[in-house]
Amino acid sequence: MAYEGITFRGSRTAQIHKERFLRQNLKSDEVVIQITHSGICGTDLHFMHADIVLGHEGVGVVKEVGESCKTLRVGDRVGWGYTYWSCGRCSACLTGHESYCPTAGKYGAHHLDQGSFGSLAIKPEQWVFRIPDGIESKHAAPLLCGGATVFSPMVEYLKPTDRVGIIGVGGLGHLAIQFAAKMGCDVVAFSSTEVKREDAISLGAREFYATNDVADYTTLNVAKPLDSLIITTGAEHLDFSNYYKLLKPIATVIPLTISFEPMVVPTIPTIANGIKIAGTTPSGILIMIQTLEFAERNNIRPIIQEFPMTEDGIMDAMARLKNGDIRYRAVLSW
Q1: Rounded to whole angstroms, how far apart are CA atoms 103 and 108?
Q2: Res 5: pLDDT
Q3: CA distance 170 to 304
Q4: Residue 282: what pLDDT?
Q5: Among the listed residues 116, 108, 149, 125, the one whose alpha carbon sits nearest the alpha carbon of residue 288
Q6: Which regions form coiled coils (predicted)?
Q7: What is the pLDDT of residue 3?
């Protein structure tokens, strides 16, 4: 049986092209998904110039399952994220950190002929997740990358008693504020201007500080020092020597955004104060499931803007994302 659907690809000129996806067979461990929604992530902007099908925050309905599939059934509402498969045998997989598997299949490197910008996807059941009933599909899509990206390091590095600084109130930052606050943390938001103060406070931040034109961050009069600092904006542009003034000794700095420029931190304060810099991605199958369940249970939802799943709709959404005009996650819909 042949499986055919619509896809939307990037190109060398960064134009979106509508094409067809065709597969002749279904592997025993795969599921066929009719896509209904897709989030748009900053990573998609990086691949706009590549000749690949875009998108990795997909949500849809299972239309068929392979003969060896064990957990999903036809009609299930499901989604997938950045990682597509892992070996299941290496040390990373065996310790629940499957996305660090050296042979993991990931967006931008594998399954280049299909993505969440389309009408049909065929994915290994292992990395496809059932969407909880209490979360609408349009809200589930951004949680599958953006949500898991912020929640994964929180589970690993934060405690409910922690005072957590979150730099940036955008696509990742507005989710990070919600997840940290619902975990019980004392959340402090930092943004360049005052524009997003009201949003940050309403999402769960107890304090907000605008940093533009502030030469010395000690003059911000931050109430108490921070146990952790989560960076949801471009880390390469940050003045770490200033942010370090707001941290407790042995604090943890967690950069989350992808950048091709180096992140520069002051060497002596990092060593002398025992500052830990933690690289992280959504680390495994379990954390993907936990992200969705925690969001449903605690009423965490992305603030979204919806666009049609068409060439023009995708180009419009991408342009707005590039210009910083999205509040706060773009979602494509059929």
Answers
A1: 14
A2: 97
A3: 11
A4: 82
A5: 149
A6: none
A7: 96
| Contact status, residue 49 vs residue 10, Cβ threshold 8 Å | yes
Residue 267's contacts (CB-CB under 8 Å, 6 or more residues apart) are none
Prior bond of 328 cis (ω within 30°): yes
Buried b (16+ CB within 10 A) or exposed e, 67-81: eebeebeeebbbbbb
Across 41-145, where does the E strand assignment appear?
A: 57-65, 77-80, 83-85, 105-106, 120-124, 129-130
Identify the sign of the CA torsion 308, 301, 142, 326: positive
What 3-state DSSP class applies to 280? coil
Report the alpha-carbon distance of residue 330 to residue 321 in Å, rounded: 8
DSSP characters over 197-233: HHHHHHHT-SEEEE-TT-S-GGGG--SS-EEEEEE-S
Note if the pTM is more than 0.90. yes
Distance CA 306, CA 332 (A): 6
pLDDT reported for residue 1: 83
CA distances from 263 to 60, 288, 324 (A): 37, 27, 21
Backbone angles phi, psi at 218, to 5 degrees: -65, -20
Q: To the nearest 5 percent, what fractions of the chain are helix, strand and coil? A: 30, 30, 45
For 28, the token pair is 């025993």
The confidence score (pLDDT) of residue 60 equals 98
| Amino acid at the residue 241 | S
**Tokens (6 digits) for 121:** 């996807």
pLDDT at 236: 80
Q: How many CB atoms lie within 10 A of CB 221?
A: 7
Per the document, the length of the chain is 334
pLDDT at 133: 98
Coil/strand/helix, residue 190: strand
